[in-house]
Amino acid sequence: MPESLPLSNGTLSPDQASRAGAVGKSCKLVAFPTESSYAVGSTGLIKAATRRLLQVKERSTLKPLAVMTHSTEAAKQWVEWTPLAEVLAAKFWPGPLLLLLKPTPQGRLLTFPEYPTLAIRVPAHPAVRAMIEASAVPWVYTSANKSGRPAQLDAASVLAELGPGLDFILDGGAAPQGSETIVDATGDRPRVTKAGLIPAEAIQEAAAA
Fold first, then answer.
1. What is the total count of domains within the chain?
2. 189: in domain
3. Domain containing 165 — which CATH number?
4. Does any domain span residue 31?
5. Are 137 and 75 in contact (CB under 8 A)?
6. 149 in Cβ contact with 34 (< 8 Å)
7. CB neighbours (10 Å) of residue 8?
8. 209 contacts 200 by C-beta, under 8 angstroms
9. Alpha-carbon distance values, 176 to 3, 169, 180, 203 (Å)
10. Rounded CA separation 14/199 (Å)
11. Quick check: bond before 94 cis, omega within 30?
12. CA–CA distance from 115 to each of 5, 102, 111 (Å)?
């Protein structure tokens, strides 16, 4: 079974962040709470981690994984930043907004050649941002459940669903239920490809302001 680390007041100490970050950076799988259920992730720079994540999730390799970074500035290293992305990130990051953007040459390391865009965001959960920052690498991630199954909202449910395949879990208690909003921000106007916790109307209003 994976090692479990309870979160104190939803945060990690620097030592705990370094410990959890080192697990993900070493290609192992870490489950953690987000604004929209629990997720599971690992370093995005090692394809073996991506393959293992897809295998544990039982997810098709035809569906690319999304990416998390600890800050907007960190995200800009991996995607071609647009004026629209700047507006939306300033309004909704950290938060449950995935921006679809073209990868930079470095960003190509995080995905497969057949995918023209990369889905990226900065999570709102402070412990998750601290863990990713401590790891010094971007993370690929997906929801912490078997493909086609409901999202899991607490650590016990995640362990029951994925336990043998995980190496580490941040136990943050109950997570909210919801889904990320996905927006194509490659052009001048936002194209909402999936509405979630952030309504499509809010995206359009922010872009028009």
1. 1
2. no
3. 3.90.870.10
4. yes
5. no
6. no
7. 11
8. no
9. 23, 17, 12, 21
10. 35
11. yes
12. 35, 9, 7
Which domain covers residue 7, as residue numbers?
3-70+122-178
Which contacts qualify for 200-209: CB closer than 8 Å, 24 or more apart? Answer: 202/92, 203/88, 203/92, 203/97, 206/87, 206/88, 206/91, 206/92, 207/84, 207/87, 207/88, 209/87
pLDDT in tens, 69-120: 999 999 999 999 999 999 999 999 999 999 999 999 999 999 988 899 999 9
Percent with pLDDT over 70 in the chain: 100
The answer to whether the beta carbons of residues 112 and 64 sit under 8 Å apart is yes
Q: Are 35 and 124 spatial neighbours (Cβ–Cβ below 8 Å)?
A: yes
Residue 141 lies in a domain: yes
Asked if 166 and 30 touch (Cβ cutoff 8 Å), the reply is yes
For residue 32, give both structure tokens: 């953690």
CA distance 57 to 31: 12
**Whole-prediction pTM value?**
0.96
Side chain identity at 53, as an amino acid letter? L
Decide if 28 is inside a domain. Answer: yes
Rg (CA), the chain: 16
Does residue 123 contact residue 41 with C-beta atoms inside 8 Å? no
Q: Is 13 helix (H, G, I), strand (E, B) or coil?
A: coil
